[in-house]
Design goal:
With 436 residues, the chain is an alpha+beta fold. The protein has three domains: 20-249, 2-Layer Sandwich (Nucleotidyltransferase, domain 5), CATH 3.30.420.10; 263-371, RRM (RNA recognition motif) domain (Alpha-Beta Plaits, 2-Layer Sandwich), CATH 3.30.70; 374-436. It is 25% helix and 17% strand. The protein contains twelve helices and 16 strands. The protein has a five-stranded mixed beta sheet, with helices on both faces. The protein has a five-stranded antiparallel beta sheet with strand order 11-6-8-7-12. Helix 6 (195-203) packs parallel to helix 8 and helix 7 (216-223) packs parallel to helix 8 (234-249). It is globular and about 65 Å long.
């Protein structure tokens, strides 16, 4: 599913199969060279560079699901815990040319949730379409048949590409469990490239590019890539993912689309290292420190640290890291993947101190209240790395610098015109210009 937890999507209740002649209609628009957008390598105008990953094919996949708009919880007809997939769309893309070999789109009839007016307006799916749709089990069986006969039986390899890990890491396993559907091994522990993660790696090489969010629409704007068809169509969104993928791999950065996320391997490393850190994502952007703490405490887990991950423009990313006192607690926290926190179905994945270190400069505390994003009394901002630390810490969690004694922190490098630092030496919080 695209764009955080937006739901539902498009097209025909039957399979739409196509050979390579029906390759992605998406085109990567040659961007105008400016100070904010790097020119693409000259070779790209003819063909994309080949990603250096080990896989022969990419299965680019996007789901759309039932949803409702922002109402009081008691009035919602569909929640994060009850959503059902209603469009199951995917493409098989060749590694060498990023050309679509096959595309398929199936609509799925929901069993427990309605097609709300909000969902229908968002996706343009009609009740008639869903009334004539098949089951989720049939959609999975069709995908499995293609992968088995066209890839695995021919001795070839593949991995998934998604826009966020929600589709395969949260929604599908939860819904399959509820509907007693046995998933193939490669769907139980899906190896995948997350377009959002790959874009993050690409941005690290191009500080001149400002990516306002990781929505498909904003990525297309930032990279001068044409959107394909309609947003919130699983099939069209899959094609847009391929178009963005072509742009990113054109620069041949050694860390972009080269190392897929392997959940089984991550879990092995997590256990071997006895890591005490998990990564949490798909959070509400305005979630507070207290709400997160209460969530874990309700699960008999007490975090040692909660660290928010910010975007390039210093806004909440909807994710972060949770540090526990014991490895056993971190291991138990992984079982919370797919549970509902507030209005969101969250993702919880293995992580490590090394992974946190790669996000230096983007870490801070979660806000203390919905209306006031300042730290809690006594929290302090590290002069060296700008991480907001809890009052109980005598040294910075990220860089180990000692806590300041009455020193107002230096102005951060991500300041924009009008931003200001709190003059309180025990605070020193970076405030946006809009705050009075």
């Amino acid at each position: 599913m695209s764009d955080t937890q937006e739901q539902p999507a498009v097209m025909d209740a039957s399979i739409v199969g196509s050979p390579s002649s029906n390759a992605v209609a998406a085109t990567v628009t040659t961007p105008t060279i400016s100070s904010s957008l790097p020119a693409k390598p000259a070779a790209v105008s003819k063909a994309p560079r080949v990603p250096t990953s080990e896989y022969d094919f990419y299965i680019v996949l996007d789901f759309e699901a039932t949803c409702d708009d922002n109402k009081p919880a008691s009035e919602l007809l569909v929640t994060g815990a009850t959503q059902e997939i209603i469009e199951f769309a995917w493409l098989c893309v060749t590694k060498n040319s990023l050309v679509v070999q096959h595309e398929e789109q199936r609509y799925v009839k929901p069993v427990s949730t309605p097609l709300t007016p909000f969902c229908q307006a968002l996706t343009k799916i009609t009740q008639e379409t869903l009334d004539n749709a098949g089951t989720l089990a049939e959609a999975i069986e069709s995908l499995d048949a293609y992968i088995t006969t066209e890839i695995l039986d021919k001795g070839k390899s593949f991995c998934f590409v998604t826009h966020g890990a929600w589709d395969l890491r949260v929604q599908l396993p939860r819904e399959a469990k509820e509907k007693n559907i046995t998933l193939p091994p490669y769907l139980r522990e899906p190896i995948l490239f997350d377009l959002k993660e790959e874009a993050t790696k690409w941005i690290a090489h191009h500080s001149e590019v400002v990516l306002k969010s990781f929505s498909l629409e904003k990525m297309c704007e930032a990279f001068a890539v044409s959107l394909v068809g309609s947003l919130h169509s699983g099939l069209d969104d899959s094609k847009t993912i391929v178009a963005i993928m072509k742009y990113l791999v054109a620069f041949a950065h050694p860390d972009v689309f080269t190392q897929a996320i392997d959940p089984a391997q991550m879990l092995r490393m997590f256990k071997t290292e006895e890591s005490k850190i998990v990564r949490i994502s798909s959070l509400s952007y305005d979630i507070t420190q207290a709400e997160l703490e209460a969530f874990f405490v309700s699960k008999q887990l007490k975090p040692k640290e909660l660290v928010m991950l910010s975007t390039q423009s210093n806004r909440p990313s909807g994710g972060g890291f949770v540090v526990f006192e014991k490895h056993s607690d971190a291991l138990a926290a992984l079982e919370l993947n797919g549970q509902v926190l507030g209005s969101r179905t969250i993702e919880v994945n293995p992580s490590s101190k090394a992974s946190m270190d790669t996000q230096k400069g983007k870490l801070s505390s979660f806000q203390s209240s919905k209306s006031d994003p300042a730290p809690r009394p006594g929290d302090w901002t590290c002069n060296m790395c700008q991480l907001v630390n809890f009052a109980s810490r005598r040294a910075c969690f990220k860089c180990n610098s000692p806590s300041p004694e009455g020193v107002v922190p230096l102005t951060p490098s991500n300041f924009t015109s009008g931003d200001w630092m709190c003059p309180n030496a025990q605070c020193g919080f970076h405030n946006y210009a809009s705050r009075s």
